[in-house]
Amino acid sequence: MEYGIYINGWREKKELMEVKNPYDGGVVGKVGVADEEDIKEALEVAKDAFGRWRKVPAYKRSEILYRVSSIIDERKEELAKTITLEGGKPIRYSRIEVARAVETFRFSAEEAKRIGGEYVPMDASPAGEGRKGFYFRVPAGVVVAITPFNFPLNLVAHKLGPSIAAGNTVILKPASATPLTSALLLEIFLKAGLPSDVITLLFGGGERVGMPLVESEIPRVVSFTGSRDVGKKIAKRAGLKRLLLELGSNSGVILDEGIEPEKVVKRLAVGAFAHAGQICISVQRIVVHESIYSEFLEAFVEEAKRLPAGDPMDENTVVGPMISERERDRVIEWVEEAKKMGAKEEIPLKVEGNVIGPVVLTEVPEEARVWKDEVFAPVVSVVPFRKFEEAIKILNNSSYGLNAGIYTPRVDHMLMAVEEVETGGVIINDYSTFRVDHMPYGGVKESGLGREGIKYAIEELTEIRFVSLMP
User: Fold this and answer.
1) Dihedral angle of Cα 121, 453, 99, 430, to the nearest 10 degrees
2) Rounded to the nearest 5°, which phi and psi values hold at 242?
3) Given 97, 103, 246, 374, which residue is catalytic?
């Protein structure tokens, strides 16, 4: 596959960026790299297109999104294979991602017809007597969408679907590691009948392409999913824009007294090691009641050892490659650091090419990066606790707060977790990796700002326009 950039039509570029398979290093495609003039033109095209697109009726926007959903379903195997080839995601999980994207765009089509407002009782104040008040939502304007490599279809869908449903235009800059899926998705949008100037697609690095878009005065919203550090840079450089930032986590799970380890180990192993742990809400920290700690640890280690690792195109593979050699080397460094600080390897580090096998650590100091930072790799730390309150403190002792999983048979502990756990999502009796695409999804603390999930993203991507009417 070879693509240029897309600004109201495909354009060839002399400068091309290779897209490599992270498993074997083979070149799977090339894309053009946007330059300064491309960025300026893209911003002006998106601005001009917004003036027309915002006036398109909701039912027409909905129809386009329904067609996008249907075409994705028709091309699901092509999309799944592209995700696996450029991103290294095991094919079984790429197919799940495509199925989720079908649903995400269907939700977007449905929500396009539900964007409304609310009556405001003006006579609640003496000053408002005799007036009628109401508000409705209007599209914010141009949206800059910057997306990560790990879900190159469905996380793009979470930017494009709500934006198009709300009547915004979008400039999409996908991750440089996984641009081909975005190009295919744009083709699908055009086939579905989207006007040619509503979505612009630019390829290139963050500093070269992403930050000039962020800093421009034209966009009204920046929607970014990626690392905490890049999110902080965006927040500093965006100016007076609305920010929707999904910045990752070091997600934890509590296993309370009374939980039967054999009933949860398979679920937790998948939550920790699928796609090499390169998921924002992968299980990274497991906090286990001392009464079941030894039993759980033994069962979890055995389950992790059984997980197939290697070629992501193999139907059985669960643990595929790290996205790059740089990321592989970072993880090796972090694990070795933890060992020097006193951590014990229950499953030793095993590396073949870019594939890192499941790693299970115990006795991990809280200062170790594999514990306190987002490891984004198949590395899990397991620690014991005595009292449930202690487990919550361990979980909360983090700069992150995206999802947490709480396994407990006790209703009082469920309620305590709901009240006390400092995360955007508290998942009772399941792992932290649980997400469905219409739920409000986002974090607290350094895990980000705002919420995704179609209805909730639309609230972030629209503005309230209030009307006071004096008859």
Assistant:
1) -120
2) -80, 135
3) 246
- Residue 298: partners with Cβ closer than 8 Å, 6 or more residues away: none
Identical fold, 2-247+445-469 and 252-428 = no
Catalytic residue among 97, 103, 111, 280: 280
Closest residue by Cα to residue 400 from 425, 423, 428: 423
pTM reported for the whole predicted model: 0.97
Asked about 246 being catalytic, the answer comes back as yes
Q: What are residue 16's phi and psi, to 5 degrees?
A: -120, 150
The domain defined by 2-247+445-469 folds into Aldehyde Dehydrogenase; Chain A, domain 1 (3.40.605)
Element containing residue 40 per DSSP (H, E): helix 36-53
Greatest CA span in the chain, whole angstroms? 75
pLDDT digits (tens, 9 = 90+) for 122-175: 999 999 999 999 999 999 999 999 999 999 999 999 999 999 999 999 999 999
pLDDT digits (tens, 9 = 90+) for 308-361: 999 999 999 999 999 999 999 999 999 999 999 999 999 999 999 999 999 999
For the domain spanning 252-428, the CATH number is 3.40.309.10
Instruction: Enumerate the domain spans of the chain.
Output: 2-247+445-469, 252-428
